[in-house]
Specification:
elongated, 130 residues, de novo design (two linked rop proteins)
Length: 130
């Protein structure tokens, strides 16, 4: 286990907590998608949210398998883009009245925190400080 941590640190692998956090986030997005209305807007948002919301965690997991800092940084940048997109769709669902704002507040807040964490990770890997 110690060797793996050392190798991960050398190329800047995401700590396990961001992996678990984005996995839990994806599960919440899936549950939200199931609650969206089955109309044209709901179906469109369902597809977009499912793709981007689950893509965050999937990209973070891919980054854990990176063999170089450059590959790691690229995959974490993809995760960041997916997180930003998910945040957008959640805000749109809230402001557009697709679902009650109260139902989305904590998920929007979590998306915002994940974006901030990923921004920090991507900046550190690009600056070589990892």
């Amino acid at each position: 286990m110690g060797r793996l941590k050392t190798e991960e640190a050398q190329i800047g692998i995401a700590p396990k907590d961001i992996c678990e956090r984005t996995f839990a986030f994806s599960l919440r997005v899936i549950r939200l998608v199931a609650a969206l209305p089955n109309d044209t807007v709901g179906q469109m948002m369902s597809r977009q949210l499912a793709r981007s919301g689950c893509g965050v965690g999937a990209s973070v997991e891919e980054a854990r398998g990176a063999t170089t800092k450059k590959e790691y940084s690229r995959k974490m940048s993809i995760a960041l883009g997916e997180a930003r997109e998910t945040h957008y769709w959640l805000r749109l669902a809230s402001e557009g009245g697709v679902l009650p704002r109260k139902k989305l507040e904590s998920l929007i807040a979590e998306a915002d925190e994940i974006v901030r964490i990923l921004v920090s990770i991507v900046k550190r890997t690009r600056n070589g400080s990892v």
